[in-house]
């Protein structure tokens, strides 16, 4: 029911939205909940477990009941709090967790079974038979329970993440927060003020408070304008969701939830990470419901919520409203309602000193199937019925201590206030003002807001300021009587604590009876506080019941752990931008586009994309790969190898560094020559391998594998910064500066000579030579190295010319019966030659294992040398061998090796296959693998079994080098 | 003279305009890395600083490491130098909303009183490593690895679009 002349809604801007298809009239400034209540609709949802009809309990983000789905189709947002969602013209709102309709929900049958569905029901009931849990019970339970449904499909909404920094973060824009922000900005601080609502004011918007003779909301509006003008960054619709290490806070900004037809680029939410030197928590307090029988009917709501609907939205949630309160706040609701002309049916207050006019008693039951129609009161005069369609309830207030507890602190029980208050210094750099600190008056909020900000600024060294405290028309100090009012809690008269998860007083008592007396155990046994509202309304009530049931005080019982986030944060907001092309950076080689143009599939190698193969008409990958590998052995092939890590090493101690990180010696390498090197970790296992070229007396260029480029760079930084900072050496990655192309095959020299100005002969560029050359007019580098076993070169030019060089070389190669080759052929060629990659050097193998133990120089020290000499790493090892199929079968990487007749058991496992391919040179399937004492077993026949792919074949153990074992082809 | 055609991965994708921010590339004559060895006559600017020297602008880019924008200097005694001209793509972001756009992608404190014109920093740009250089109050140069230029532009454009769309609110 709308009340004339009340509320901050814009009556000049009427609008229409739909609820379950029914058109609803509203005004700009309404929430879904306020608009529905204005139209006499109290029933807004069904509860999680019993499918009980529910209406809004609150008018804020703590709402447990009024959860709805907004929007349609893939853009639907389930579990939206009707109390938070602002309405706009054309908004679609649907109820959830009910079928076929909110009013006639089939699953409400669950409610009849409530006597059997109490705490621990699932644990006790669905034990047998074991298999039925997964197949029957769980699917059925999951279908019956639950809140809104995800729309399915990819999320079409844009989302955003952002960083912010400030001197002072003020959490909450009520009277305390406004004064804190005002004080901080006056003192010269850089201030961010975040508030959940779309406008600042906090409770000033929802109460009839006067400040300095003005309406509270008007004062807040003026303050907001002033703060904005002074440079305070005001984040409205923004909830600070968590406090983290180092003064970092998470915050969720609802950017476009309130917008009809948002711009397609507009984010729905923005997840902020705010680094603040100081934080003033002015998040206010949350009112407590009272646990009395059947307290969950639509129409029962918090007394503060009734005032909020009245003052902010001009709505009376009923025609005849009763008030049940254990503190003075409830009486304020009665006064405000009367003043607005709403009939107050009764005021019930159980306290001995209940004000005159109130009934000294308790509400012991309620009536009304889909909404409240009446209540039963027990007082000195016995039981009596009172007809009413709304009941305002107040059980006192809980300061919003959540953020103060996010780093492990627990709040402190204040017996005088009968509530938990923040513990001092709970979060470094955070201090608490206003109701969040247990100061429940407006003048107290204004004053502590200023004082707390002043103290925070003193710590920051801000300038001293004088800030006037405005005068608030004072409400009397609140008296909060001890907590919950309880009445017999029977199956027919259940007293709800946790509305969202349907946990009653009886459930908590049951938990205590079954010895789940720790508050953390009680929580998990009953699921109290584990719903999307995280028990904001119910935690303190539930532990009070537990305290009573276990005969302990509330302070002894303690609270459960408060964890971020304070309100639900969509995963999509936290991972904003992380889908599609934003998932990870794509590293593209210079010839990426011409390769794609040739139809090459680009395969991910770490972040890089490299060509798999270059298919000709009608070829599948295997045909293309086989053709390319044979082409390299026959004529010439061109492959991009730019992704290999290239590290420039200069300085008088460059050689010392290389000798220290490589197992073999580089100080003896002549200028203009390249050497293969092996690098160990401290623990003696192989880290990486590659070639290093000596370009000058104090200048080397190291090549790493693509996969380990970053790891090797980090390793070199560690060595030069920590182990030998005295060495005079400079290291820098030049990977990105050079495009490098491998030219391999018997005709490689002819091809290379056609692009290089200088003579390329056996004398000028023998095997393992390098030098600076001119390539098609561009200064570049030439290395005579081979990863294919063929006569081969690597040609390097500045990256800008990479695509052109690759295309040019490919065209020339094609004129010579050659062409491009991809990663698959490159892999085949190196397997044929027994060269290792990270398929072999996985981090668990040693130089001994891969047959390179002799590369660990005896004449010098190197990283990992001593560790590699440990006996366990030198005897009875799985050693690298070559493998060849002998029965026409195919080897597969990952398969295991067994004796021909031994049983296929883990304990008879002899080794495993690391790399496998079809060898065009040998005409059969070959591979590399590790075999227990393998080098002594050459010629042996074994069974290869791939349990995963269900593939088997017989293999012969060979030396790792399958083709050209003496290496003549590369040297020629 | 060369027969090879130079290609820049950013040139097909830029410039871009969204809202009051523009993204383009900046191609200096050359980028040369300088790392002084013991006894060198020059020193790298202090962390986060840039200095006009050696006929160009030398930007701090890491521990004992600077990037010289401008003509490649003759060999400097006791300074390890490499040509990094092709290693980096420099993206230039300019306009009144430049700090807002970058705040979507980097945790750096971009407060102009702290990150003043002329300052540099190494930090994250989305998921990648970048060198940030504030040229002027509303002009940032963002250095990213050449191979990642496409991803960097994608991420920056997304941030630009999101902020431009906020102006419709």
Describe the structure.
Chain B: InterPro entries: TrmE/GcvT-like. Chain B: This is Sarcosine oxidase subunit gamma. The complex is a heterodimer of chains A (972) and B (169). With 972 residues, chain A is α+β, with helices and mostly antiparallel strands. Among the domains of chain A are: 158-285 and 399-460, FAD/NAD(P)-binding domain, CATH 3.50.50; 595-642 and 737-829, Gyrase A, domain 2; 645-735, Aminomethyltransferase beta-barrel domains (Alpha-Beta Plaits), CATH 3.30.70; 876-967, Aminomethyltransferase beta-barrel domains (Elongation Factor Tu (Ef-tu), domain 3, Beta Barrel), CATH 2.40.30.110. In chain A, helix 5 packs parallel to helix 9 (442-460), helix 7 (303-313) packs parallel to helix 8 (328-339) and helix 16 (621-634) packs across helix 21 (823-833). Chain B is mainly β. Chain B folds into two domains: 16-27 and 87-166, Probable tRNA modification gtpase trme, domain 1 (Gyrase A, domain 2, 2-Layer Sandwich), CATH 3.30.1360; 31-83, no CATH class. Chain B is built from two helices and eleven strands, in the order ββββββββαβββα. Chain B has a six-stranded antiparallel sheet with strand order 1-2-8-11-10-9. In chain B, strands 4-5-6-3-7 form a five-stranded antiparallel sheet, with no helix packed on it. In chain B, a hairpin with a 2-residue loop joins strand 1 (16-18) and strand 2 (21-25). The termini of chain B are far apart. At the A-B interface, strand 8, strand 15, strand 30, strand 38 and helix 20 of A face strand 3, strand 7 and helix 2 of B.
In short:
By secondary structure, chain A is α+β, with helices and mostly antiparallel strands. Chain A contains 23 helices and 49 strands.
Write out key terms for the chains shown.
heterodimer; A: 972 residues; alpha+beta; FAD/NAD(P)-binding domain; Gyrase A, domain 2; Alpha-Beta Plaits; seven-stranded mixed sheet; six-stranded mixed sheet; 27% strand; B: 169 residues; mainly beta; 2 domains; six-stranded antiparallel sheet; five-stranded antiparallel sheet; 2 helices
């Amino acid at each position: 029911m709308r009340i004339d002349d009340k509320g901050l809604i814009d009556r000049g801007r009427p609008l229409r939205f739909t609820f379950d298809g029914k058109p609803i009239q509203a005004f700009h400034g309404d929430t879904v909940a306020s608009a529905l209540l204005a139209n006499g609709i109290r029933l807004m949802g069904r509860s999680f477990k019993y499918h009980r009809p529910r209406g809004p309990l609150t008018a804020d983000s703590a709402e447990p009941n009024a959860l709805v789905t907004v929007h349609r189709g893939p853009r639907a947002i389930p579990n939206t709090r009707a109390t938070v969602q602002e309405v706009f013209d054309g908004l679609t709102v649907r109820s959830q967790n009910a079928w076929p309709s909110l009013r006639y929900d089939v699953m409400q049958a669950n409610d009849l079974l409530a006597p059997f569905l109490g705490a621990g029901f699932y644990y006790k009931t669905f034990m047998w038979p074991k298999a039925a849990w997964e197949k029957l019970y769980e699917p059925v339970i999951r279908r019956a329970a639950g809140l809104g449904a995800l729309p399915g499909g990819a999320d079409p909404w844009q989302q955003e993440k952002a960083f912010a920094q400030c001197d002072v973060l003020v959490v909450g824009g009520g009277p305390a927060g406004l004064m804190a922000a005002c004080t901080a900005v006056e003192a010269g601080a850089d201030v961010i003020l975040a508030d959940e609502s779309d406008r600042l004011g906090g409770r000033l918007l929802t109460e009839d408070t006067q400040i300095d003779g003005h309406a509270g909301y008007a004062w807040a509006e003026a303050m907001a304008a002033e703060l904005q003008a002074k440079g305070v960054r005001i984040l409205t619709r923004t909830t600070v969701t968590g406090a983290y290490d180092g003064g970092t806070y998470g915050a969720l900004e609802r950017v476009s939830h309130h917008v009809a037809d948002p711009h397609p680029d507009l984010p729905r939410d923005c997840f902020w990470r705010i680094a603040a030197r100081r934080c003033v928590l002015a998040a206010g307090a949350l009112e407590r419901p009272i646990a009395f029988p059947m307290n969950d009917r639509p129409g029962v709501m918090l007394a503060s919520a009734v005032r909020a609907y009245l003052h902010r939205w001009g709505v009376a949630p009923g025609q005849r409203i009763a008030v049940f309160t254990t503190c003075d706040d409830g009486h304020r609701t009665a006064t405000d309602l009367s003043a607005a002309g709403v009939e107050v049916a009764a005021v019930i207050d159980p306290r001995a000193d209940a004000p005159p006019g109130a009934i000294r008693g308790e509400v012991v039951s309620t009536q009304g199937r889909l909404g409240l129609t009446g209540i039963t009161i027990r007082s000195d005069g016995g039981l009596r019925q009172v007809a009413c369609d709304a009941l305002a309830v107040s059980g006192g207030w809980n300061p919003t201590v959540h953020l103060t507890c996010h780093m492990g602190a627990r709040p402190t029980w204040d017996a005088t206030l009968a509530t938990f208050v923040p513990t001092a210094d709970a979060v470094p750099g955070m201090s608490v003002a206003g109701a969040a600190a247990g100061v429940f008056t407006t003048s107290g909020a204004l004053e502590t807001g200023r004082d707390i900000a002043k103290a925070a600024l003193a710590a920051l060294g801000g300038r001293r300021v004088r800030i006037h405290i405005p005068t608030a028309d004072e409400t009397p100090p609140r008296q909060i009587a001890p907590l919950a009012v309880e009445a017999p809690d029977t199956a027919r008269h259940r007293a709800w604590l946790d509305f969202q998860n349907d946990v009653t007083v009886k459930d908590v008592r049951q938990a205590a009876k079954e010895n789940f007396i720790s508050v953390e155990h009680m929580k998990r046994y009953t699921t109290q506080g584990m719903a999307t509202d995280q028990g904001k309304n119910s935690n303190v009530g539930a532990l009070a019941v537990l305290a009573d049931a276990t005969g302990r005080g509330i302070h002894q019982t303690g609270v459960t752990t408060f964890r971020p986030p304070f309100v639900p944060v969509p995963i999509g907001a936290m991972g904003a931008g992380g889908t599609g092309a934003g998932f990870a950076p794509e590293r593209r080689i210079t010839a990426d586009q011409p390769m794609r143009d040739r139809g090459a599939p680009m395969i991910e190698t770490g972040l890089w994309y490299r060509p798999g193969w270059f298919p000709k008409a009608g070829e599948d990958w295997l045909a293309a790969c086989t053709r390319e590998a044979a082409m390299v052995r026959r004529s010439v092939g061109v492959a991009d190898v730019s992704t290999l890590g290239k590290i420039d090493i200069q300085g008088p101690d460059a050689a010392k560094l290389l000798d220290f990180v490589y197992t073999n010696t580089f100080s003896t390498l002549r200028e203009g020559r390249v050497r293969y090197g092996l690098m160990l970790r401290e623990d003696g296992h192989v880290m990486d391998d590659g070639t290093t070229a000596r370009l000058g007396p104090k200048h080397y260029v190291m090549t790493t594998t693509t996969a380990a480029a970053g790891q090797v760079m980090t390793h070199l930084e560690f060595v030069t910064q920590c182990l030998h900072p005295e060495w005079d050496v400079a290291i820098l990655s030049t990977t990105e500066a050079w495009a490098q192309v491998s030219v391999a095959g018997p005709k490689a020299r002819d091809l290379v000579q056609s692009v290089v100005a200088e003579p390329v002969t056996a004398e000028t560029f023998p095997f393992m030579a390098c030098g600076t050359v001119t390539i098609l007019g561009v200064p570049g580098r030439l290395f005579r190295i081979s990863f294919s076993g063929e006569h081969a070169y690597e040609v390097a030019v500045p990256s800008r010319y990479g695509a052109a060089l690759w295309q040019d070389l490919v065209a020339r190669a094609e004129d010579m019966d050659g062409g491009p080759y991809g990663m698959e052929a490159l892999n085949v060629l190196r397997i044929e030659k027994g060269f290792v990659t990270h398929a072999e050097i996985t981090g668990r193998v040693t130089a001994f294992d891969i047959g390179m133990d002799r590369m660990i120089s005896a004449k010098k020290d190197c990283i990992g040398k001593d560790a590699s000499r440990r006996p366990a790493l030198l005897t009875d090892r799985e050693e690298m061998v070559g493998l060849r199929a002998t029965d026409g079968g195919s080897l597969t990487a990952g398969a295991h090796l067994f004796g021909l007749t031994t049983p296929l058991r883990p304990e008879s496992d002899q080794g495993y296959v690391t790399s496998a391919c079809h060898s065009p040179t040998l005409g059969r399937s070959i591979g590399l693998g590790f075999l227990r004492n393998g080098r002594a077993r050459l010629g042996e026949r074994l069974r290869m079994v791939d349990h995963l792919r269900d593939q088997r074949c017989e293999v012969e153990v060979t030396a790792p080098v399958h083709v050209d074992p003496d290496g003549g082809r590369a040297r020629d | 003279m060369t027969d090879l055609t130079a290609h820049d991965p950013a040139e097909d994708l830029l410039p871009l305009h969204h809202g009051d921010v523009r993204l383009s590339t900046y191609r200096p004559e050359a980028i040369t890395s300088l790392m002084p060895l013991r006894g060198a006559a020059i020193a790298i600017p202090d962390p986060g600083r840039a200095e006009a020297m050696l006929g160009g602008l030398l930007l701090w880019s890491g521990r004992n490491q600077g990037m010289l924008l401008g003509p490649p200097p003759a060999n400097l005694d006791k300074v390890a130098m490499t040509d990094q001209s092709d290693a980096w793509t420099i993206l230039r972001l300019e306009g009144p909303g430049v700090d807002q756009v970058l705040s979507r992608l980097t945790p750096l404190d971009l407060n102009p009183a702290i990150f003043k014109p002329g300052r540099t920093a190494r930090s994250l740009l989305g998921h990648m490593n970048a060198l940030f250089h504030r040229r002027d109050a509303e002009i940032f140069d963002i250095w990213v690895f050449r191979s990642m230029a496409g991803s960097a532009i994608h991420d920056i454009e997304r941030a630009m679009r999101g902020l431009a769309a906020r102006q419709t609110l």
